[in-house]
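Hi Y.,

Following your request, here is the sequence exactly as I used it, all 116 residues.
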Amino acid sequence: MTDHPTDQQQALTPDVVNAIVRDMDDPRFPTRITVFCDHCGAENTSEYLVHEGMSSRERLAVARKHLVDNEGWEHADDGDDFCPTHAAPKETHVVADDGDDPEHVDDCPGCGPATP
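Below is the corresponding structure, written out as tokens. Let me know if you'd prefer a different format.
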């Protein structure tokens, strides 16, 4: 996907969308994109800001990135999409004992205590 200087992570409130649509120099516009789970057919339809020069594949990548980063979806290398129910479980880092693991930091995401 092409990076654009106006790309930002911001909520699409009605006020934000209105401001973008009224600004004739802003290349972004809202579009509705639906992503389907390739396992069960569940749908996620949301509106995203895209640029007029983006291909449909790049626009779909915007939706997929949001769903993977924020909604628990999985996008496989072969192009399949999986809803949170059918996404592969995230790896959990388990600490065997509180100091011998060089990769462990106190705030590591998904870190769980070792079970005896």
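The longest helix spans residues 56-70.

Thanks again,
Q.
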